Amino acid sequence: MNPNSPGVPFELSIIKLDSLHGVNSFEPEFKDETRTEAYLYKGELPDINPLQISLRAGLFYDIAIEGILISPSVVYHFPFTKITSTQNWKIHQLIGSLDIRIPL
């Protein structure tokens, strides 16, 4: 990094499409002309596990302002099960929400 240049150092790596490997017989392809995203697989995932189990933990808070209740929350899901039986893929979810409740 140039000491006279402010900022955070980063490394730019270019991946050749030939070096990407798709799932099953799918041939990888780039999403658009910018070549920043590539499809490694299209279609339904093989060997889907129909039962997904996770632990949900989060922070919730209620704020009362002139009869209106505002409830922000942040929740994270810790997965216990894999999506497929052949891959070690799990779905991690971080969800933020804001509820506004008005009495009728």
Shape: elongated
Judged by helices, strands and strand pairing, the structural class is mainly beta
Mean pLDDT: 78
How many discrete structural domains?
1
Low-confidence stretches: none
Number of helices: 0
How many beta-strand runs?
Answer: 6
Give the termini separation. 60 Å
Whole-angstrom Rg: 22 Å
Major sheet: size, sense and barrel closure?
A: 4 strands, antiparallel
What is the percent of helical residues? under 10%
Strand content: 25-35%
Question: What is the chain-wise order of helices and strands?
Answer: EEEEEE
Explain this structure:
The protein has strands at 29-30, 38-39, 54-60, 63-65, 68-79, 93-101. It is mainly beta. The chain has one domain (17-101). The strands form 2 sheets. Strands 3, 4, 5 and 6 form a 4-stranded antiparallel β-sheet that branches. A hairpin with a 2-residue loop joins β4 and β5 (68-79). The radius of gyration is 22 Å and the shape is elongated. The termini are far apart. The model has no long low-confidence stretch (mean pLDDT 78).
